[in-house]
Amino acid sequence: MECFLAGCIVWGISFVIFLAPAVAQQPPLDTAPIDIAPILREHCIGCHAGSDPQGGLDLTTRAHAEAGSDSGPVLESDSPLQSLLWQVVERDEMPPKKPLNAETKRLLKQWLSEGAIWPDVPIDPMALSNSSRAGLDWWSLQPLRSVDFTNEQFDAPTGLDFWIDRQLREKNLERSPESDRRTLLRRLHLDLTGLPPSQELLDRFLADESPDAYERVVDELLASPHYGERWGRHWLDVVRFGETNGFEYDEPRDHFWHFRNWVIRSLNQDMPYDEFVRWQLAGDALFSDPVQGAEATGFLVAGPHNTTLPAGNPLMRLAMQQDELEELVGVVGQTFLGLTVQCARCHDHKFDPISQQNYYEFAATLSGVRHGEKSLSEPLEQELVQKQEQIRTAMVAIDSEIHSLLQQTARTLLQKDGLTEGAPHPLPIPRVGWSATDLELEKDSPLKWTPHGKVTRGDGFAAFDGSGGYLASPPFELRGDSKTLTAWVQLSDLSQSGGGIVSLQTLNGSQFDALVFGERSPREWMAGSNNFVRTRAVQGEKEGSALNTPVHLAITYAPDGTIQIYRNGARYGIDYRTPEKLPTQGVPLQLLVGLRHTPPGGNRSLHGKVFQAALFDRLLTEEELRWLASDPKRAIASTEQMIAGQSIEVREQIQSLEGRRAQLQSELAKLADTKRRVFYTHTGNSVETNRIFFRGEVASPGPLVEPNGLHAVKWPGSDPSFRASKTEADRRAAVARWITDSQNGLFARVMVNRVWHYHFGSGLIPTPNDFGFQGGVPSHPDLLEHLARQFKEEGFRLKPLHRSIVLSATYRQSSKLRENAKQLDTDNRWLWRFSPKRLDAEEVRDTLLAISHRLNREVGGIGYRDTQHAFVKGTHTYTAINESEIPFLRRTVYRFSARGGRNPLLDTFDCPDPSVATPKRAETTTPLQSLALLNNPLLFSISQSIAHPPNLSPDTLDSPASVQRAIDRVYRKVLLRDPEPEERANASNFVTKHGLVPLVRVLLNSNEFLYVR
Q1: At what angle are helices 273-286 and 745-760 packed, to 10 degrees?
Q2: 98 in a domain, yes or no?
Q3: pLDDT tens per residue, range 902-927
Q4: pTM confidence score
Q5: Which of 108, 318, 468, 947 could bond 600 through an S-S bridge, CB–CB 3.0 to 4.6 Å?
């Protein structure tokens, strides 16, 4: 991703504090040679150095300079002042945007005339900060500083206030008086829980004159379960939480709500922030709780995920995978370190000391992340475990008895057709099978296959035209890691690329193993899999005969990960081994015929005929596969076929056994029902080989790289090298430990600033995700150090940090505007008052529901959906529905967050797009907001509930007194105060003419309701 300079930045005194001098003081010309390094670093090296120097010119060493540029030589050794290097400077052509001043030109000219002596070591463009970029000495990259105010005059209420007051004095400003108690309580409630206080809570607080009344409310709110909901929403913004994949198909993630609930639960428990981060980066590797690990590492897959990777174009597929990796690297770097690491993908970072090579080293720690689902059991009590084992043992015995009967049945069927010659013993009987006769089964058959789309029945086959039709088996479970997929197939088009013959998939199609034709290599068979994690080129022969003659195909999957394809009973291509496996233990599965995986779309559908397809729950031998491939009639494709031709006694015996097994299966399911859960989370476990791609282009690969941290982020004793990490999980564990190291000052500063931003509307650094050059320097540098060190010393716990902020006099200030202060500090950068903040989108909806008594305050659980989901031609759509008739609605944080499904009311109030990280929400003011609060159907319903609560007798409004009582009631409900005399008089006339509901709608449109003051 390219990074461009937005414009010149005018630095103030804060910059001087943190930035090392760009040009060292030059020695007298007659006593010492010119030190050219600061001049070149300041004006030239930013462009003419690194992995891809502009114009091909590198000025870091004399040798590089003498090598010239794309335009030819730039430095004449014999006569440097005749060099192109000096000529373009003298003509003010270089630097292009800001020519050198006369003094710097004079020094450069003298240096050239003295022989152009470069330093002994290459000039490192990232070593020192200057006016155009940050170096390794940049303020945020340094260890935490100790700041002490005990030796200074201390007249502030808290240490936090001391640093604010000192800055205010320097700016000839002073802090505003404390807010009135009503305003302060509403601010505190909305800030910490996202919900307004009730009138009863307000009355109790106003009546409490004890000196610690406010402090006790703070503690109550921090202990409230709604605290985690409010601050969890902030975190979900930062990590771009969405419950659909985005892109063209936008598939839903039905089991991703676990991550949201984990965030809320962890914040309510005040989990230390460093532990909170380690869980999200590598909870499955660093901790022993697999369920919580699956919940927390949902962070890694929270972003958009492209499932429409192009077939037959490996470079484009790789490019799209690298795009997704860049997005993840960017989120990790910005969220935890405040560094835009992703900007170094195509070249060295233009503003921060991050090289392109270091980007790819850091990306290597995350390159094994994969999207998918896990089914996990929570720890069970011993008695329950024993009961499950007893049931499983009984089921194995039944399976053995059924298997014995089916062996007899299968052999009888084969003998009837004279097909037993050379038959192996035991006969290979499929776990699930299909043949054309299954299309004739009765609808109440327990193994009824379901056709979807266009499926044409022929003479002994099912025909598919590539338009998306397929057959699906009922759900089932598979035990063990061994399996074999087989099929008899005839193709209608040898040029098709990616059609699935037979596929074993999880029910939502996110993970699958399939027999596929022509996807990566034209006219070749391959073992298809989700994201190609179990797919390799096998170098098989090009298919030629399947157009006219059915061929038998098989894929075997061994427990050690070895995959082998067979064609007509003979090995096809080479075998290979992969560490990835399709999850089968306790996961509901489905067999498809005619489709690579659901949902249909793209190139997934087959154009051809399938005669038989089967899944075996073991590894078939080459002998068995040769025998099956020798005659299509030898494939026993379904249990139904085998049973149908037997005597009534045998059929009844098998049915009885199957009934008993189904009963046991039901008992087992009931035991596991509340103990087994499915999670959308990180599922990868393979160690990827990583290399640089020059200019970020996958068509220009460079050398291999090893996983590493960022070299710019260091502290005494730190080691960002992760070369010892052997597995994918080891890599993530290493980077998690490195990021959260207690000596990493950046880690603490970024989170402290993020919390400050949400409390005050703007951070001490105004860019919460960028602590590099573009983010500038903090408004209150010593305060940031003070809070970061305090945060660290208190065990990285967030609730004490919140407490210290909201108890400060700075936070409790009035928000009233003072003209004299505004003239000196228009943007309130120095915090001479509390800046009013508009309610964010979720606060607007939640507050409306709360004051109308229609809020369902349940914490956790599966979220609600405010969209109608439809699946059309391979694409999922999400259309907003009318919520107004639903009596009790949940908090907005539990909304199913579809990337393609927007909510008009929330969007009007700047609810962010979950496809991108949003560390800082927009705050717009538009006519649409007023229109929404007047005309949205939910607002009509809520206004009615506030004006005429169902638990109160309807207001008659038949006398001035009754009108006054009704007006007072809605004012107190909406604005938490009584109306002023003039307001009461105006409202009385309004209600008499138009009724009470329009008055409520007017109040809901007021700034007093919409803003936190």
Answers
A1: 120
A2: yes
A3: 899 999 999 999 999 999 999 999 99
A4: 0.73
A5: 468
